[in-house]
C-alpha cells in the first residue's frame, strides 16, 4: 500500500515534524521535478516542493511553486493520457460542507482522470456533521480510512487550517468561508497567463463584493508574487476589500488603489488589462437588510466597457447572478468560460504535485 507523504514545512507557520524522505526533498533545490512521461506504464513522477504540502492559503505559494503548477498544467493539456495513473492507489476525500457545483466537480473529475479513488462527501446526510459530529471527529475518521488527501470546503474561516493541523494527509482548501479559495486563484492566474502571456506588469481591477468574496483575497495574494502589479479595488465602501488584504499588500509593497466613487470608475476601467468581477455573496451577509440595500448596486455591461482597452479581459469565478451582463459573452472580453475550463488542468496539476506518485 502506498502511504501519503507526511507534511513538509508551510511557509509562515511553525515547522511540522518531517520524516527523512521529506527532509531529503527539502534539502534539494527548487525545481527538482522529475518528469517520467509516456514511459511503458504511462506514469508520471514528480518530486516537488509541493509534495505532501497543505494548500490552505494562497500566501503559502511562492512564484516558483506556482510556475511549477502551471508547467504541469500545460503538460496535462498537451499530454493528458500520460497522467492517467498518477494517482493510482491513492484515495482523495472531497469533504464539502457548503454547496458547490463547479469546484466539487472539477476536483472530482481531476482526481478520477489521474486514476485516483474519490470519496465524495458532499451531501449533508453523508457526513455526520449534521448530527452534531465535530469536524475534528469527521477528519479523524477520514484519516482512519487511510485517505491520502482531503479537499475541504467549509463555511468557517480557519476551517482548512484547522483540518491541516489535525490530520497528517495533505489538506487542500476548496473554500473557507469568506477567507480564501486558493485553488480558484491558481486557475485565475493560469487564465491570465494563457490569455495575456504574462502576469508581470498587470493592471488588475477587482469589482463587486470584495468584502465577502474569498476568491478576491486569494487572487490578490497570488499576484503579489509577480513584478509591477497594480491592483484597483472597485466597490462601494460597504463592499471594499478587507483590511487583512490591504495589510498584506502593503507588507509586500504591492501598489493598489481603492475606487469607491461612481464617477471614478471610467478612469479606473480605462487603465485595466483584466477586470475580475464577483457576485454579491448573499450567504455571508450578517444582516439581510444590508444585502437588500446593496443588491443591484453594481453591474458590468458593454456601456461600462466602452472606456476599456480593446484587449481588456473580463473574468468571473462564477456563478454569476446579475452583476455581469450576458451581452459581454459574445465579445472577446469574455474570458470567464475559458477561466472555468482551466479549473481541470490546474487541479490535476495540484493533485499530481501534492499527492502524485513519486519515485
Ligand atoms: N459555489 C459555486 C458553485 O457551486 C462555485 C464553486 O463551486 O466554487 O459553482
Ligand atoms: N465560486 C466562488 C466561490 O466559491 C465564487 C462565488 O461563489 O461567488 O467562492
Percent in helix: 25-40%
The tally of strands reads 9
Query: What structural category characterises the helix and strand content?
Result: alpha/beta
Query: What is the string of SSEs from the N terminus onward?
Result: HHEHEHEHEHEHEHEHEHHEHH
Mean pLDDT: 87
- The CATH architecture designation of the largest domain is 3-Layer(aba) Sandwich
Name the poorly predicted regions.
1-6, 8-45
What Rg, in angstroms, do the CA atoms define? 20 Å
Tally of structural domains: 2
Describe this structure as you would to a colleague.
With 359 residues, the protein is an alpha/beta fold. It is built from 13 helices and nine strands. The protein has a five-stranded parallel β-sheet, sandwiched between helices. The chain has a four-stranded parallel β-sheet with strand order 2-1-3-4, sandwiched between helices. Strand 1, helix 3 and strand 2 form a beta-alpha-beta unit. The N terminus is likely disordered. It binds aspartic acid (ASP) (2 copies).
Main attributes?
359 residues, alpha/beta, Rossmann fold, 5-stranded parallel β-sheet, 35% helix, disordered N terminus, binds aspartic acid
